Amino acid sequence: MSAGAMATAGTALPLLRERGQREVFCGLTGIVWLHRKIQDAFFLVVGSRTCAHLLQSAAGVMLFAEPRFATAIIEERDLAGMADANEELDRVVDRLLERRPDIRMLFLVGSCPSEVIKLDLSRAAQRLSVKHSGVRVLNYSGSGIETTFTQGEDACLAALVPELPATTSAAPELMIVGSLPDIVEDQFLRLFADMGIATVRSLPARNAASMPPVGPNTLFLLAQPFLGDTARALEDRGAKRLDALFPFGAEGTVDWLHAAAKAFGIDEMHFRSLVAAPRERAKRALERHRMLLEGKTIFFLPDSQLEVPLARFLANELGMVPIEVGTPYLHRQHLARELEALPEGVQLSEGQDVDRQLDRVRSSRPDLTVCGLGLANPLEAQGLSTKWSIELVFSPVHGFDQAGDLAELFARPLRRRDMLKV
Fold first, then answer.
1. In the chain, how many domains are there?
2. Where residue 113 falls among pLDDT bands split at 50, 70, 90?
3. Which strands sit side by side in the sheet containing 200-203, from one edge to the other?
4. Got the DSSP string for 341-378?
5. Does residue 10 register a pLDDT over 50?
6. Which of 279, 280, 239, 229 is nearest to 256 (CA)?
7. Which residues pair with 18 in a beta bridge?
8. What is the SS3 assignment for 207?
9. CATH number of the domain that 358 lies in?
10. 261 contacts 412 by C-beta, under 8 angstroms
11. Whether residue 237 sits in one domain with residue 187
């Protein structure tokens, strides 16, 4: 399909919709950070040897601990119907749970749609939940046909929402939605506690027994911009999303926290005094990188769905100049505030036609291109500096105390380029 331009709702920025060849990781990659977050969960990928190799390569840094993920490999005989795939899956799960009695939640993750693997994982999850009563068995798709890089987390959390208990409290409760490094989550929890918000829970929780309740009294903040299905599932259970910028940089974090403060009736002077010191620390940390980044052009190829809030942060807090901000999917409602905060003249693009986008990168010659691993080396060979988008997902980058580290991720490749020129 050819690209087409249209106006984006809530902003005058034009939107270029592209449908063509993609160059992104599939949603299976989310397992690498999710299995660390939910500490008594296990992720069993039902797929091919190729999928097993992907996970092994992506998570190969974990050499000294037994990981909580594996692949149930589908052989040719399974696809040909020569073996009963459900019986074989049951046998794998039985052996896994016997070996790992610490597992309290098991995700069956499809690497392909059920029409391809010839196995209905939804029914399999229901059957295995009955068979293994002490373990919650859920399923979702991480298929590259159906998901891109970070949408694996969205699919996982959306599968969790129907299993969450109903809230029993009439008082409003706050939920942070999105997988965050423990250190970042703890920082946010301390800030909310200091504000005076009594009950704050996280989805996902760190273990299966602590998953938060949800109901009409639940107010939630999205910590990640790629959780559209999860937000919809929470809203279907009566929860209400608080509209805010995402917590990248000093200003994004203030706005995100302020949305909760307003919703819970926190005194404005108390809120401002609470965030004044960490906001100032974040600004000082950013100032160290502003001299290098200010005025530099940046081009975002679509990969993680973090692109729009990161472009807003880099433009408004560090003075960078976004040329094009591409994202796999543009959720206009969740990103409305972010889009309004982008500078004029930015080209937005949704979806991918990698050849067209690479032509625009070569034509504009940005100072920095944010892209997936598969595109970085070819662009570097053509004299263009790049930043791996995957590093922005794996690194602690949310909140006040990580603002300087986030800026450093963009400054580092430019500093390296300058050193190589010498």
1. 3
2. low
3. 200-203, 173-177, 218-222, 240-241
4. HSPTTPEEEEEE-HHHHHHHHHHH--SEEEE-HHHHHH
5. no
6. 279
7. 351
8. coil
9. 3.40.50.1980
10. no
11. yes
